[in-house]
Specification:
The structure is a homodimer.
Chain A (H helix, E strand, L loop, with lengths): L1 E2 L2 E2 L4 H11 L8 E2 L2 H7 L2 E6 L9 H10 L3 H4 L3 E4 L3 H13 L3 E6 L4 H9 L3 E5 L3 H15 L2 E2 L6 H17 L5 E5 L4 H13 L4 E7 L4 H8 L21 H10 L2 E5 L1 H15 L5 H12 L1 H4 L3 E6 L18
Parallel strand pairs in A: 4-12, 5-6, 5-8, 6-7, 9-10, 9-12, 10-11
Antiparallel strand pairs in A: 1-2, 3-4
């Protein structure tokens, strides 16, 4: 993504091309509503259900765009990434659809279900120690050995253009939105959202929702430069990663505000979605509802789109049955 | 429902009238599919998602039909029922939409979430001891005191006609079905399914799916007369109740076969639906998939509709986190 010191910032054309490229490989996911949650928040909420997306998460969009956009020569050695979460699974899904190999470097301490998910889609898992230095060393070995194309989980123009297709669908599915709220971790989804909305619906407000216990984006946003957390810990495990230069560009330029929620608020919102909407969503996906419930005045009377980012939950280890939180 | 010794068997006209009557009060629920579950079963499965129904269960259909069909005079004293499950909640929902009171007699040992659900929709809970004699005595008191109209959970022609609207939608939503599989407890849903399909799609096979540990319908079906279980116990708690004369009529006349599944198979199927389809469904709703997985030859190559009956789960007490089953 960094080439000759330049950074390739994806454009509206890139997003539109992504949409064409991936349309046969990903779902146009449904938008769901809940009278109860509307009553509770005083807003009209429209949930874009990427938990129903291929491989269970919005990351199938960006991963598919990256994989399908490779030339034959680029694709011949397959793709590789490091991820202990949805990006690894989704990249494997996309590689499988193109029929090329995919290697995912993961800490040996990553949950077994995540390793199983990558293998279930036909990917190869290579384990590293749970440290940045080990991950980088092991990943370099993988690339040297395979010649695979690196697809970063979020700091990649192809990935961001792909994620932008989600809000492109949303604004076609729901008229008259006032705002969109999406979770923020590394910033891939929020950057795609900014890319699309700043071009196609620039009057919409864009809120990023972040766990208090991993609030590096919140602090970066307020400081005006990237601040990385030191080993953040949150139940919303998809949101622990830091912003990078490309996502920082979108966040610092287009995001209206970043709002945070406590662990308890996130788990309560997650349970509320399960109970009231009858859908299985990840903790990360509940952060937007948690910040809306915490900041009712910001959203009251508004038509608000919420990106439900994914549904890949280990149902044997739910946050409220682990004994950590009730 | 028993009048002058006669039994009112609902007709296609009753179902069609129910559909008109309730259409503004219940959802036409979506049909979802899963490539993974198709691959696993060798069949093409179409899940009719009544977990997204009003009040979280198909029983909103029958309850709404009963409540909305009452004359002004019949409705003036409200409605009452005995139920520790979805019928109580759904009858309360329907009564609330008509603006009449609803009383639900429940064992004092019923789960708090069920009592809270009835109260949450504005209903009154009256507790009895957990025995048939206490329930009947308390219920008689409630009716004497209020003059409320009794709406039985399933042995009621209005309720069965309402439940029949579910498969009427399903056959419009999915072309070329070969079979429909629905859970069986008291037999309200399966009777409604029989009513509709025997008239509108008589070539479809109708399978009832039942827990092995509450297999009174299976044994009745094979014996040719109603056999009641003695205190059945199953994780599919909506399916513990016995057949009654009206539901027995439909089951004995129109059902192709009754297939059973073990507790472990039901819980495995439930987890599979949660993990793969990302929807919250009750254990009862998983019994059809469990019997399909157990009897692959019956369904291989077929287009099979499955009624997902509801999604009212106590997420704090999941079957696989209770320590009873893994």
């Amino acid at each position: 993504m960094m080439m000759d010191g330049c950074i390739h910032i994806p454009t509206l054309q890139d997003m539109l091309a992504a949409r064409q490229r991936i349309m046969r490989y990903v779902h146009c996911t449904p938008v769901q509503t809940s009278r109860t949650l509307n009553a509770l928040t005083g807003a009209q909420l429209f949930f874009k259900c990427e938990n129903f997306q291929k491989a269970g998460a919005f990351k199938a969009r960006g991963a598919s765009n990256a994989v399908l956009g490779l030339s034959q020569r680029q694709a011949q050695n397959g793709v590789a990434t490091h991820s202990s979460g949805n990006h690894g699974t989704c990249l494997t899904y996309a590689a499988g659809r193109r029929g090329i190999p995919c290697t995912v470097v993961m800490p040996r301490t990553a949950p077994q279900v995540k390793k199983d998910a990558v293998r279930g889609y036909g990917g190869r898992v290579v384990e590293c120690e749970p440290s940045t230095s080990s991950r980088e060393a092991v990943f370099a070995e993988v690339v040297a050995e395979t010649g695979a194309e690196f697809v970063h989980p979020y700091n990649d123009h192809r990935v961001i253009a792909g994620q932008g297709t989600c809000s492109a669908e949303l604004i076609e599915q729901v008229d008259g939105l006032d705002a969109v709220v999406a979770p923020i971790g590394g910033g891939g989804m929020i950057s795609g959202t900014c890319l699309t909305l700043s071009n196609l619906a620039p009057h919409l407000k864009i809120y990023a929702a972040e766990p208090e216990q991993a609030d590096d984006a919140y602090r970066s946003f307020n400081a005006g430069y990237i601040i990385a957390d030191d080993a953040p810990n949150t139940v919303a495990d998809g949101l622990k990663v830091p912003l990078k230069e490309l996502t920082w560009h979108f966040v610092s330029t287009y995001v209206t505000d970043i709002l945070t929620a406590s662990e308890e608020e996130i788990v309560d919102a997650m349970k509320l979605i399960w109970k009231r909407m009858k859908i299985v969503v990840e903790a990360s996906s509940a952060v937007p509802l948690a910040v809306i419930l915490r900041n009712p005045r910001v959203f009251a009377g508004k038509r608000v789109g919420i990106i439900i980012t994914g549904g890949n939950v280990d149902v044997d280890k739910l946050p409220w049955t682990r004994g950590e939180l009730q």
